[in-house]
């Protein structure tokens, strides 16, 4: 099993349709052990807020 560190951009691609999300989704099909920085949830939250403010995502979708 290989260990890799993920960041917020990868996590967002797992849940939202984005450019190059297929590469991020393919990671889920591999025998990997994921590690993330302690601030990952904060980074994901900040990214979701930016997308809501820019109109690219509804608040309802971001909350889900």
Describe the structure.
This protein has helices at 8-15, 21-27, 40-54, 59-63; strands spanning 2-5, 32-35. The longest helix is centred in the C-terminal third of the chain and has 15 residues, at 40-54. With 64 residues, the chain is an alpha+beta fold. A two-stranded parallel ribbon has the order 1-2. The termini are far apart.
In short, what is this structure?
The protein has helices at 8-15, 21-27, 40-54, 59-63; strands at 2-5, 32-35.
Helix and strand run:
EHHEHH
Shape: globular
- Roughly what percent helix? 40-55%
Assembly state of the chains shown:
single chain
Strand content: 5-15%
Kindly state the number of beta strands. Answer: 2
Helix count equals: 4
Radius of gyration: 13 Å
Question: How would a textbook summarize the main sheet?
Answer: 2 strands, parallel
Note the gap between the termini. Answer: 31 Å
Structural class: alpha+beta
**Strand neighbour order, sheet with most strands:** 1-2
* Low confidence ranges: none
Mean pLDDT: 95
Q: Any key phrases for this structure?
A:
64 residues; two-stranded parallel ribbon; 4 helices; single chain; alpha+beta; 12% strand
Describe the secondary-structure layout.
Elements: E1 2-5, H1 8-15, H2 21-27, E2 32-35, H3 40-54, H4 59-63
Parallel strand pairs: 1-2
Helix pairs in contact: 1-2, 1-3
């Amino acid at each position: 099993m290989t260990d890799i560190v993920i960041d917020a951009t990868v996590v967002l691609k797992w849940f939202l349709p984005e450019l190059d999300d297929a590469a991020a989704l393919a990671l889920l099909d591999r025998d990997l052990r994921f590690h993330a920085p302690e601030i990952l949830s904060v980074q994901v939250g900040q990214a979701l807020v930016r997308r809501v403010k820019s109109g690219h995502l509804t608040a309802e979708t971001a909350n889900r």
